[in-house]
Predict the structure.
Amino acid sequence: MDDRTQTSTRLFGETPPEFRADGRDLRIDVCRGIALWWIFLDHVPNNIGSWLTPRNYGFCDAAEIFMFLSGVTCALAYGRAREREGWSGMIGRSLRRGWDIYAAFLLLTLACAILVYLAGSDDLADGSNTRILLERPGATLAHAAILQYRPVNTDILPVFVIFHVLFAPLLWLLLRAPNVTLGVSLLLYAVVHVFGWRVPAWPNGVWFFNPLAWQFLIVLGAWCVIEGERFRPWVMSRLTLVLAVLYLVFGLVLAQSWSIEPLVSQSLRDLPFPLDKSNLSPIRLLHFVALAMVALRFIPRNWEGLSTPVLSCAKCCGENSLPIYCLGVLLALASQLTLLDFSEGLAMQIVVSVAGVLTMIGVARLLNAIGIQCERKSAGTQSIGKGPPVR
């Protein structure tokens, strides 16, 4: 009898084991929820709460985390939908989700304009890029409908609309040639930085989150679900961990030298570090990859800390990422208005930061409760319709 250990090699066209796995990896929703909190804190200008986010401790911030996890969740959700419903069902789901995000973007654009109009603040109108919407509503809404105009902090939603609509062909390619697909995505990312390819926006400028560059994180997240297990021994190796930690320490030292007291020589700080967020600069990308590798090494899937009250609150927010993100944008505007009208002092910064995060948690729990009630009513209706069992 052959007693050799089975390998994890997956045959061509075979369904990835992650698509057949039961349950949900709690780390995904917890990390997404924390990323949503960080994004809100970073969106409030001159906010002490932003010191709780990774933005001040390295090159990347919560946007990279949120974008990568979106690729992971899309691969899991649509991959499992393809297993259950076939390609037609999966395409229908991706198009419906794209439509939901598109509708949320338009509603959020209107909500931002209404909030700024009611506030009557010129500074807030300029800072939120809603002045043109208030002055030229017809033309601005027409350009918003084709994703060419976006108020500040809503830029990520049009990117998600595109990727959800196009995720079916991406998944088809990843299932058949995952490494080639990732290589093509990396090539497109490199071309963006070599030739400066951008997507135009209205009335002037370009998309802040250049989809031609940020697509790599979406593809990387989906690739990790489908093909990442083969590279897990390398990712979990001691050498990889050492290199990742060294890069994170380098980013921490350099970031602190920029923001507080010079910790490194002036010649090193004067080097041209391209921290371009719009095009996802390579040092930002490498910083996120290093951070992800360290997190994967020290936070296992069955870690007991994931069930603590704070992380359970983060999980609730992560499970309702779209409405909570939209809420966070409005809360950031309201917080900015509060700081402008009342006080920009430290105490008020702490108040608006804590109040915003607690509001996001409360709304997320309310949405979960409503969802549970709807599921119970639906299950009850189905059981009534079945009638008594035949004896």
Observations:
- Residues 62-119 form the longest helix (58 residues).
- The chain has a mean pLDDT of 88.
- The chain has 17 helices and no strands.
